[in-house]
Amino acid sequence: MTHPYIPLTAAEESKMLQACGLASVEQLFECIPEPIRKAFQVDGLPPGPLSEPAIVSELTRLAGANWACDRLVTFLGGGAYDHHVPSIIPSLLFRSEFATAYTPYQPEVSQGTLQAIFEFQTLVCNLTGLEIANASMYDGATAAAEAALMACGANGRDQVLLSSGVHPSYRDVVGTYLRATDREATLVELDTTGQTPHAAVAGADVAALVVGYPNYFGVIESLAALRRALDPKALLVVVANPIALGLFAAPGACGADVVVGEGMPLGAGLNYGGPGLGFMAVKESLMRRIPGRLVGMARDHHGRSGYVLTLQAREQHIRRARAASNICTNQALAALASTIYMCTLGRQGMIELAKLNYHKAHYAFRALEGIEGVRAVFPSPFFNEFAIRLPREPRAVLERLEREDGIAGGIELGGDYKGLEDALLIAVTEKRTRQEIDRLVAGVRRSVK
Amino acid sequence: MSGEKSIFGLSAAGRRGMVLPELDVPADGSLEELPAELLRAELDFPEVSQVDVVRHFTRLSSLNYHIDKGMYPLGSCTMKYNPKVNDLMAALPGFAQLHPRSPDRLAQGALELIDRLGGFLAAVAGMDATTLLPAAGAHGELAALMMVKAHFRKMGAGRTRVLVPDSAHGTNPASAAMCGFDVTEVPSNARGSTDLAALGKALDERVALVMLTNPNTLGLFEEQILEVIELCHRAGALVYCDGANSNALLGHARPGDMGFDVMHFNLHKTFSTPHGGGGPGAGAVCVKHVLEPYLPVPRVVNEGGAYRWSRDFPDSIGRIHGFYGNFGNQVRAFTYILALGLSGLRRIADAAVLNANYVKARLAGAYDVAYDRSCMHEFVLTGKRMARAKGVKTLDVAKRLLDLGYHAPTIYFPLIVEEAMMIEPTESESLESLDGFVDAMLAIAREVETEPELVRHAPHTTPVSRFDEVEAARKPVLRWRGAEAAARPPAKPAKTKEREAR
Ligand SMILES: Cc1ncc(COP(=O)(O)O)c(C=O)c1O
Predict the structure, then answer these.
(1) The predicted structure's pLDDT at residue B433
(2) Fewest CB within 10 angstroms: A194, B234, B354, B401, which?
(3) CA of B242, closest atom in ligand 1
(4) Which CATH class is domain B84-339?
């Protein structure tokens, strides 16, 4: 019996072996030295194939052991947000034509993928206010790390200023990447308003300053002021939440040289953190340094216009050890999801969506702040996420919210920030209803009484 | 145009694609108090209806070739069937809607899956531990190089060099360079394998890692792999296996048993997760004990029956991903492995290798095989003779295949084969389908003799014909600037120093 994924039958096998002048399949593997050609066991793996019902049952059991957003009302943020994924995204995304195509190396039979990437690049440019965007990076964190490396290459400096308002995991990833080339990141602590202090970034002979927009605490920092304070040769790298950009000034318009971020909120879904997509947009002057794939317009031999992968001389398959980056496979299908998302929401929708997030988060914030003993951590403007201090241990509050209210109430800040052991990070998206927010507030009130 | 307007060209003021939830809370007035400089002035996004969006992307999709349509013999890419059940399982709400910042107590199913998949891969690799954090193969390479660097740093050894064969994929040297290593290319021998003498010469006490691909990018098993690895180890270097070609070995042999210290798998190749037009992939890295302390964090640990993420590994290279890698693809790969079982995995290699050898045997008369010996899951042809005799290049043959309903093989890689054509049928193709492809290749070979012009100007039946890629790179247009700008190329071509290679 053949396996459903492997059409080869016994009869075909012998016919094909004969055509190859061979007697057995084993012979094909005789090039592998005897001592290492051997059968082995895999713990926990059945010896033979599982039926589809058996697979579905096992995976359903595993999925059921998670408390996902289908079972808990979530106020978790911290770099991933429970936004609605429009129904047309999964339906378009899993069209075989998109999902099962490879990288568009043959443009004549890949115009669908290529044009979609070109439209993605355009939307990212327009959203960020910059001139060049690539076809995607692995995620927001690696995009930030690659931006830091690109900055070092661009201005020949080795030190990167990293605001402590940048997502802690992103900071770790930037640190990992810089360490590999014996470079370093210098942490710039947020001031008491939750902003990166301008004085601390001024005059330094650095490759780049990396800041969050909004930062990890949801705070909208003044990019223009940071740009003015920063050494003119240093690049301002902004890690942006794309949903916030529907409302807040485009970083490019505020003097950012590079904007990166996690595109997951744009319709890619949560998926326990991936696949999402990193996006990266840069000023025109960095066009030949930007990592990753770029799609450009081209003309075919009949003069028709279309799209091709271009400026490939930056990439590993051409330049090898001297490439701008090692990235090859990126997050194309998730970039397609975000393209569909941005088109579906459109000009008005992106603005409205950002406002919904803003207002719902502020409603939650006001109500929580009204509870005795609950205080805001920072007094600054914020988007859809904010930090509050509790008069009780946050872990106990969260566990009670889960148990009694079916609510995932927020993220503890103590693990990542000293002095915030009593604080929670709370995110509110357009999906949260007034009722759900009121339930959160009531639950917190009950727990801290 | 290729037939489909830009989405910006479809825009009409006032159209919308979705209704958003209503604002059911009072606004607190804070927005109006924000300084204008913090707020966005305008947003140049299209305004389209949901119908527009669905039709636009559906029409675009129809311009793509894809594995569900037919054979996709792209060497080194393992374009195999992507089972639908994998996608359905990844879409289960318990996975798809699981927030990555969920406390571990709320994510036990995901953690169990990650732990078990890591175990499966380590067992198939013959290694001791796995990280699933890398988002793609090259990301895995980079993580591995960082681990190697951390290891030698800890040992106090100043090993700053990495050796790669001249047949290696571009990501190998690029990853090494990104990690600050000096890269030396080692020539292959006349049989397409690692040249032991050249390797011996290149090895010294400064070499940290030798990066091999096995089977290599010529589709050949490294015949002297045991000797090669021993030579590297004797020089104090560690040895990496680029496992992009693991489809050939599944269930037959394990890199760990060969002596490799570290390897990556491309789950989007060997373990069937869809390529998505260029990603997302997933690039698991498996290591022997020697490198385990350096694995990136977080790592899943199991204590008293409960799983949790731990960052408590003082020698770790640190984080390499914002969350936990491409978890959706980890679910797909896990589902795939269960669907096959151990015997199914082994049968994949049987069929992938037999299919490649069969196609090679049938093409060997009409085309020249670069290294004519028993291949593994893929093989490389050289179009040198056709190019010299008839002026028909590998690129032309590839384009002509598009006319005949097939995707082209990988071309001009590996770099050590002139006019290379790298063919990987995978186990997904039936004999009928393989014969169809071979017949198309043979028909092209005949056309090269009788009608070379037809081949040289191919493709003729695709939605667009060949592009002027040199021109596209000389005057890059990388974003939509309106229909007029698209119709008219800029008047004065910008001069650029960089020359574009293909
Ligand atoms: C031999 C080989 N190594 C490494 C890679 C890089 O893998 P990825 O594209 O997943 O980064 C590839 C795939 O393109 C490959 O074929």
Answers:
(1) 98
(2) B234
(3) 3
(4) alpha beta
In this predicted structure, which of A311-320, A379-388, B161-170 has the lowest mean pLDDT? A311-320
SS (H, E, C) B422-471: EECCCCCCCHHHHHHHHHHHHHHHHHHHHCHHHHHCCCCCCCCCCECHHH
Which tokens sit at B251?
Answer: 């269930």
Number of domains in chain A: 2
pLDDT at residue B495, rounded to an integer = 41
Q: Are A263 and A335 in contact (CB under 8 A)?
A: yes
Compute the Cα dihedral for B221, B227, B233, B237 and give only its sign.
negative
Of A273, A306, A341, the one marking the end of a domain is A341
Pick the last residue of a domain from A320, A341, A362.
A341
Nearest to B476 among A52, A67, A296 (CB): A296
Domain range for A435 is 73-85+348-447
pLDDT at A318 over 90: no
Chain position carrying tokens 């914002």: B322
Please tell me the predicted confidence (pLDDT) of residue B1. 46
How far is the C-alpha of A421 from the C-alpha of A404, rounded, in Å?
23
Domain with CATH 3.90.1150.10 in chain B: 348-456
- Between CA A77 and CA A75 the distance in angstroms is 6
User: For A341-362, how does the pLDDT look when each residue is reduced to its tens digit (9 = 90+)?
Assistant: 999 999 999 999 999 999 999 9
Query: What CATH code is carried by the domain that includes residue A238?
Result: 3.40.640.10
B207-213 and B238-242 as β-strands: parallel, antiparallel, unpaired? parallel
Q: Is B441 in the pocket of ligand 1 (CB under 6 A)?
A: no
CATH code 3.40.640.10 region(s) in chain B: 84-339
Domain presence at residue A228 = yes
Task: Answer yes or no: do A145 and A130 share one domain.
Answer: yes
Q: What is the pLDDT of residues A265-294, one digit of tens each?
A: 999 999 999 999 999 999 999 999 999 999
Is the Cβ atom of B217 under 6 angstroms away from ligand 1?
A: yes
The verdict on A92 and A80 lying in the same domain is no
In the beta sheet, which residues pair with residue A291?
none
B10-14: long-range contacts, CB 8 A cutoff, minimum separation 24: B10/B46, B10/B48, B10/B52, B10/B56, B11/A346, B11/B46, B11/B47, B11/B48, B12/B47, B12/B48, B13/B47, B14/B47
| Same domain as A285, residue A161 | yes
Domain co-membership, A107 together with A231 = yes
The CATH code of domain B348-456 reads 3.90.1150.10
> What is the distance between the alpha carbons of residues B6 and A86, in angstroms, rounded to a whole number?
21
Interface contact flag, B95 A113, Cβ < 8 Å: no
Per-block mean pLDDT, blocks of 10 residues, chain B (502 long): 85 96 96 95 96 98 98 98 98 98 97 98 98 98 98 94 96 97 96 96 98 97 96 98 98 97 98 98 98 98 96 98 98 98 97 98 97 95 97 98 98 96 98 98 98 97 96 95 67 38 32
Q: What is the pLDDT of residue B488?
A: 53
**Domain identity same for A283 and A383:** no
pLDDT-based confidence at residue A39 (cuts at 50, 70, 90): confident
The alpha-carbon gap from B107 to the nearest alpha carbon of chain A, in Å, equals 5
Name the residue of A328, A329, A330, A333 to mutate for ligand 1: max ligand atoms within 8 A of Cβ. A328
